[in-house]
Amino acid sequence: MPDASTVLTAANFSPLSMFMNADWVVKGVMIGLILASLWSWAVILDKLFRLGALNRQADQFEATVNSGRPLEEIALEVGDDNRQVLPIMLQLAIREWRDARGRGPMTEAHAGLVMQRLDRGMDSLIAREGQRVEAGLGLLAIVATSSPFIGLFGTVWGIMTAFQAIAVQRNTNLTVVAPAIAHALFATAIGLIAAIPAYIAYNKFSGDAAAFTGRLETFADDLVVAVNRRLVDRLGSAGVSSSDRL
């Protein structure tokens, strides 16, 4: 800690100077907060690009589905190895429809079983995709909620150390007090710097993830309705549908 004869300049209050002159506990707090901030920014950038890509892919696929072409033809084009969730959902609906169509005359019991399997399959796909989209949001929540308190701990510790040093030196000159208090408060500043972007990003991406999950549910409902309509056609026409294409 500087004594009363120390000449203070702006350089004494630079971020690097305040970090180097801080107590070792405060330094540890600062390093932890900086690492947490970098980690949260990695999640933020990943979510920003990933959610954008998922929505663009969904836009393109929904445009193809809404073009009026038969769904089986679209499913054949995308293939079975496509890893995008909407094509996977379409492939699931096509498989259930083909299974129902290949069993000959349709009965109400079999139609109900097909719809149950399709509903469960769609729910499972949506749940897995929702977990994948929301991955990393828990980290943002932890950084957003805990960083200010961790920074405050560093500040309290730094102020305690500063007062101890002031008591030992028996000097309350501003040149002694100001740097020590500034070093301590710098920990809280870093905590807020880490928390604010994480908090904003968490709320934004939570909403985006919920919107994307809702989009999947809507697409699944449309597929279920399409399959159910064909099953009803087969039931109403004694097993012979006016169209065997979905």
**Rg, nearest Å:** 30 Å
Helix-strand sequence: HHHHHHH
Portion in helices: over 70%
- The total tally of domains equals 1
Detailed description of the structure:
Helices cover 80% and strands 0% of the residues. Residues 1-6 have low confidence and may be disordered. It is mainly alpha-helical and 246 residues long. It has seven helices and no strands. Helix 2 runs antiparallel to helix 6 (137-169), helix 3 crosses helix 4 (85-101) and helix 5 runs antiparallel to helix 7. 27% of the residues are buried. It has one domain. The longest helix is centred in the C-terminal third of the chain and has 63 residues, at 174-236.
Quick recap of the structure?
The protein is an all-alpha fold. It contains seven helices and no strands.
Layout: helices, strands, pairs:
Elements: H1 15-20, H2 24-65, H3 71-78, H4 85-101, H5 108-134, H6 137-169, H7 174-236
Key terms:
246 residues; mainly alpha; 7 helices; disordered N terminus
